[in-house]
Write a structure and sequence with these properties.
about 325 residues; ornithine cyclodeaminase, domain 1; Rossmann fold; 2 domains; 8-stranded mixed β-sheet; 8-stranded parallel β-sheet; 16 strands
Length: about 325
């Protein structure tokens, strides 16, 4: 047996967005059913290098398949200037749970972008109004691209408003999508005045004012992934229906972490986890008893999303002969 090596272009070619969305939704459902094993992230702090390592292992059992993987990812903020490398580099080892054989080693950076976009699409599908046509995006980095690509699979997006303090990033985003959508630049309030809003920034002071969003806007709060990060006005969170991906992660490092630590939000302010909405244990938008006003999906990212996306990528790559095989595990005992 040989292990399949998948570089960024291989992962991008094999991570078909509709398939990744389905797989990530299956991951949320498996999590709700208890059909996963997902230990907490472990950290290695390296202040001398202005960085850290994080390991994210998980196993999940879907309806017709199961899989295991671990993502080894870092955050070294000085990489771009000092080493000419991305600040975040991810590597995924995707294994057969039946015998532990490493089926693939793949680029985890591209995979993370795709699965994060897919998570926003799953939340949008269950929580946004059915006739949503406009999408606001705050933060025009690489993650913004997969937000639009995935969300437009579940809603008929026509108008896109993108906001970023970096004009060049906004220009690149508009150039990439202006033939497919009506895309224009705006400030955060302009972006918030849409049917759907995705925030993908690392800010620690809210940039989305409570009065800017429409009465029915669904918000994907994707940027907060560490204590102190905070994109949405507290008053907005206090009045919205909040759906989270994981209780421990969101209260510790998700969008709600700051008002939570200050006692402004409590358990009573959380509608539930997305897995409960996916499995119909909680009603989604448009269903009896479901949310009607502003909804917020607080996403911190789960290791099972990486497993689900890696499953799609590996199977598609094998079907289409993508990637490079090499012998990682010797066959001799």
């Amino acid at each position: 047996m040989e292990t399949l090596l998948l570089d960024p272009s291989d992962v991008a070619a094999s991570a078909h967005t509709p398939e990744v969305i389905v797989a990530v939704e299956e991951a949320f459902a498996a999590y709700q059913r208890g059909d996963v094993q997902m230990p907490a992230k472990s950290y290695i702090d390296l202040p001398q290098y202005a960085g850290d390592f994080r390991s994210m292992p998980a196993y999940m059992q879907a309806d017709n398949w199961d899989a295991a993987a671990v993502k080894w990812v870092n955050s070294h903020r000085n990489n771009p200037d000092e080493h000419g490398l991305p600040a975040v580099i991810g590597t995924v080892i995707y294994s057969d749970p039946a015998n532990a054989f490493p089926l693939s080693i793949m680029d985890g950076t591209t995979l993370t972008r795709r699965r994060t976009g897919a998570a926003a699409a799953v939340a949008t599908d269950h929580l946004a109004v059915a006739d949503a046509h406009s999408l606001g995006i705050i933060g025009a980095g690489v993650q913004s691209y997969t937000q639009l690509e995935a969300i437009s699979e579940v809603r008929d997006i026509e108008t896109v408003v993108v906001s970023d303090v970096r004009e060049a990033a906004v220009e690149r985003f508009i150039e990439r999508f202006n033939e497919e959508f009506d895309v224009r630049a705006g400030d955060p309030a302009d972006a918030a005045d849409c049917d759907i809003l995705s925030t993908v920034t690392p800010v620690e002071h809210p940039i989305v004012p409570a009065g800017a969003v429409r009465e029915h806007t669904h918000i994907n709060a994707m940027g907060a992934d560490a204590p102190g990060k905070h994109e949405l006005d507290d008053k907005l969170l206090e009045s919205a229906t909040i759906v989270i991906d994981d209780y421990e992660q969101c209260t510790h490092s998700g969008e709600i972490n700051v008002p939570w630590s200050q006692g402004l939000l409590t358990d009573e302010d959380i509608y539930g986890e997305l897995g409960a909405v996916v499995t119909d244990e909680l009603a989604g938008r448009g269903e009896p008893g479901g949310p009607e006003g502003v909804t917020v999906f607080d996403s911190t990212g789960l290791a099972i999303q990486d497993v689900a996306a890696a499953h799609v990528v590996y199977e598609r790559a094998r079907d289409e002969d993508v990637g490079t095989d090499f012998e990682l595990v010797g066959t001799k005992l």
